[in-house]
Design brief:
Layout (H helix, E strand, L loop, with lengths): L12 H17 L4 H10 L2 H12 L2 H9 L10 H5 L6 H12 L15 H21 L5 H15 L2 H13 L3 H12 L9
Helix pairs in contact: 1-2, 3-4, 3-7, 7-8, 8-9, 8-10
Family: Belongs to the COQ4 family.
Main location: mitochondrion
InterPro entries: Coq4, Coq4_euk
């Protein structure tokens, strides 16, 4: 199979299974290995990406995003402009969060192992909105915060990697009360990931 989009790496079903398994084990051992989290998410996500794409197509904002394929990176987001916004705005709070955690919109890996250009974009969009979820949910980037965000993303996206990280991460968090209470709140939430 030839490459279907820039950075695409076609792989066999066996390679997908091997990469998915090994990256999941590595990511569970060290959740800060974002490269392994990325590989795991791409090699295990096919049905979840179709589900996400379908949800987006059934939503006017989601359809527009799929049509226009906007990206969230330093070439599309004017961080200087966001810094000039009032403190009460989402844009200013987003820049404050980037500064606080010393990250940039370019921190997210490019999708490589999804064998459909449209679904690859859905995965890229998910990745690029991850920091928005931290901000909207008021969660830090420590282990507890990441686990809480992964519960939210798992419920919203059905991505196997999110479920794996949420469940695996919960077992690593010393006090499970916060995560369990957060999960219960999310299951009652009307928040729609696809409008982000």
């Amino acid at each position: 199979m030839a490459a279907l989009y820039p950075n695409h790496i076609p792989i066999s079903a066996f390679s997908r299974l091997l990469l998915g398994t090994s990256s999941a084990i590595t990511a569970l051992r060290n959740p800060y290995r974002d490269d392994m989290v990325a590989v795991c998410s791409e090699t295990t996500a096919c049905k979840a990406l179709e589900y996400m794409q379908d949800k987006m197509q059934n939503n006017s904002t989601g359809r527009r995003i799929l049509d226009e394929k906007p990206r969230i990176n330093t070439s599309t987001v004017d961080l200087k402009l966001l810094r000039a916004l009032p403190e009460s705005t989402f844009g200013r709070q987003y820049v404050n969060m980037l500064n606080r955690y010393k990250i940039t919109p370019d921190s997210r890996k490019e999708v490589k192992f999804v064998d459909n250009p449209d679904l690859a974009y859905v995965m890229q969009r998910y990745r690029e909105t991850h920091d928005f979820n931290h901000l909207l949910l008021g969660q830090r980037t420590d282990l507890r915060g990441e686990v809480n965000v992964k519960w939210f993303e798992a419920i919203q996206t059905t991505l196997p990697m999110c479920w794996l990280a949420a469940i695996g991460g919960t077992t690593r968090v010393k006090s499970k009360k916060t995560t369990t209470a957060f999960y219960r709140r999310l299951t009652k939430s009307d928040t729609n990931f696809y409008d982000v």
